[in-house]
Design brief:
The complex is a heterodimer of chains A (about 240) and B (about 325). Chain A has about 240 residues and is of the alpha/beta class. Chain A has helices at about 40-50, 70-75, 95-105, 115-130, 145-155, 175-190, 200-205, 225-230, 230-240, and strands at about 1-10, 15-25, 30-35, 55-60, 65, 80, 160-165, 190-195, 210-215, 215-220. The model of chain B is unreliable at about 305-310 and about 310-315 (pLDDT under 50).
Chain lengths: ~240, ~325
């Protein structure tokens, strides 16, 4: 379980994230939506430790991790994907994934990298996202959709407690969206998931809880039905089509 | 980082055997030249731990080389089983002190910071009581533990240098296959992503920096042992740049690239001196040609272009 309390981040005079609190629970898919510039990606960066907090606290399983750097949070079970594909391009798909396992395992650096249990874990993660057939391929040769899946597999291989997914559907074709949406649903069974996504159809289909952010602040939090019928949300963000 | 394939390893082994047989057929001058090339190869190989494996381009490397060399002199040339570990230790400790500071910066700023630290080391030995002179000084060779007649020196040092180079290269081949080696290559490929996955990137980079520094110290020690001469020039930044050129010439993407590059550069320098009297000009033309036509260095001669593998220093993202 991950808890954020009054997270705040200033960039100069801009309040990118302003007193945002939320709780991520295992088994729950918590989506964050909002217009561009609402602070969604900054929120993920604050939770993952990519950028330091201006104010507020982050708890992982009740332990205060606010001051931890990104790598330490990653090692402790905070897994994240990136809005723009972010992998080790010159390494194979399985090696990308195995490196995630290695980071989490923290075993002796002097042991051979051809570690069968680790490779097994990596392959299991690749199977779960449906990328096992491409295990031996160099990551830079993957299609965009496959690279998005590799992002998720890398995080899964690290056996995370919390998944922070930054627009996993960005740039995917219509036929690629459904399987990934199903995967997101599946991942929420055994993880606490935070999903930032622009595809509203998918968000309302898969999310258990939705938080709407506008100008760095939380406008509303509720079930998809509550959000859909909220007048405030409609005025501020959703427009007339939903 | 590409560790040479099976045929490649056999070719390297064959070249090693050819060098080992030099006492049977080569002149003393040629054996000394081969020793010079092997010390250079050892030095460039130490830098490859940073450049090719981790993606860190450092100009402080010659400082650690010089620390290793001057350790021999400062200890007063006790037997080699004392000077060798001491030189490695001195350079390693130097890297351990400088590394955490230099590694706070990245990219171009790392290059400049290491340049500054390298020059600090240079001036610690340049025209100071510690260095013993601006022009360098002849030192007593540390005894090898067995008597070496003057006539046998070129052959003995050739074989000693070959042995050390072979051990270091083999060790680095092994290291590249370990989890540490893979993590370093992950950092070269995508540092931020490695951190997000939970790798302690700063610590891993420091390990690489200290290992590279210690190996440079070893190379410096072999230089002092071979030449019985140390000078502040050993620590100068242009020595670091020269090692970078060796890596560039030999192949930044291959572990054995610096070895090929060191031999090639030594040959170019000697050939240029013998044939034209203008070695720097020849060197320049060769590098221009290498950058234009040999993007993956000599080691990449038979490699197909691989996407994403850095093939020249200019390709570093």
């Amino acid at each position: 379980m991950m808890q954020a309390e009054r997270l705040t981040r200033r960039f100069g005079g801009l309040l990118a994230v302003d007193q945002v609190s939320l709780t991520l629970r295992r088994g729950t898919l918590h989506a964050v939506i909002g217009p561009n510039g609402a602070g969604k990606s900054t929120l993920i960066n604050l939770l993952s430790g990519e950028i330091p907090l201006s104010a507020g606290q982050v708890f992982l399983n009740d332990g205060d991790i606010s001051a931890w750097p990104a790598w330490r949070r990653g090692q402790a079970g905070v897994g994240r994907t990136f809005q723009r594909t972010n992998v080790m391009p010159d390494m194979t798909v399985v090696e990308n994934t195995r490196l995630a396992t290695q980071a989490r395992a923290g075993v002796g650096l002097m042991r051979s990298a051809q570690n069968q249990p680790m490779i097994k874990t990596a392959l299991a993660a690749l199977r779960r996202v449906g990328l096992a057939d491409s295990a031996g391929v160099t990551a830079s040769t993957l299609s965009h959709g496959q690279a998005r899946l590799l992002e998720i597999a890398m995080v899964l291989a690290g056996a995370p407690i919390v998944l922070l997914l930054d627009e996993p559907l960005a740039g995917l074709g219509a036929e690629e969206t459904t399987p990934v949406a199903n995967l997101l649903r599946d991942l929420a069974h055994d993880h606490a998931v935070l999903l930032v996504e622009h595809d509203m159809d998918v968000v309302f289909a898969v999310a258990d809880i939705i938080t709407v952010m506008v100008d760095g602040r939380v406008l509303a939090t509720g079930t998809p039905d509550e959000i859909r019928t909220s007048a405030a949300v409609r005025d501020a963000y959703l427009g007339h089509g939903v | 980082m590409i560790v040479a394939s099976r045929p490649g390893q056999f070719m390297l082994g064959g070249a090693g055997l050819a060098i080992a047989s030099m006492p049977l057929w080569a002149s003393a001058w040629h054996m000394q030249l081969a020793s010079t090339a092997m010390v250079a190869a050892l030095f460039a190989l130490s830098l490859q731990v940073l450049v090719g494996a981790t993606g860190l381009v450092s100009l402080a490397q010659a400082g650690f080389f010089g620390l290793g060399a001057y350790t021999v002199h400062l200890l007063g040339s006790p037997p080699v089983w004392i000077t060798l570990p001491a030189a490695v230790l001195a350079a390693g400790v130097g890297a351990l002190l400088i590394g955490p500071l230099a590694l706070r910066t990245k990219g171009f700023f790392f290059l400049m910071t290491t340049l500054a630290f390298g020059q600090m080391l240079f001036f610690a030995f340049h025209d100071t009581p510690l260095g013993g002179g601006t022009d360098g000084l002849f030192i007593v060779r540390p005894p090898l533990g067995f008597p070496v007649p003057r006539a046998a020196r070129p052959a003995v040092f050739l074989l000693v240098n070959l042995g050390v180079l072979a051990i270091v290269y083999t060790g680095l081949c092994w290291l590249m296959g370990t989890m540490l080696g893979h993590a370093l290559q992950g950092i070269r490929s995508n540092e931020n992503r490695m951190a997000a996955l939970g790798h302690n990137v700063q610590r891993l980079k420091l390990i690489a920096f200290v290992l590279a520094g210690a190996l440079a110290g070893l190379a410096g020690h072999m230089s002092a042992l071979t030449d019985a001469f140390v000078s502040p020039e050993l620590l100068g930044w242009h020595r670091s740049a020269e090692a970078l050129l060796m890596i560039l010439l030999g192949g930044i993407g291959a572990l054995h690239g610096p070895i090929l590059g060191a031999f090639a550069l030594t040959a170019v320098q000697e050939g240029g001196t013998l044939l034209t009297g203008r070695p720097r000009l020849v060197e320049g033309v060769v590098f221009l040609a290498a950058v234009l036509f040999l993007r993956q260095g000599l080691a990449g001669w038979r490699l197909r272009a691989r996407k994403g593998v850095p093939t020249s220093i200019g390709d570093r993202r």
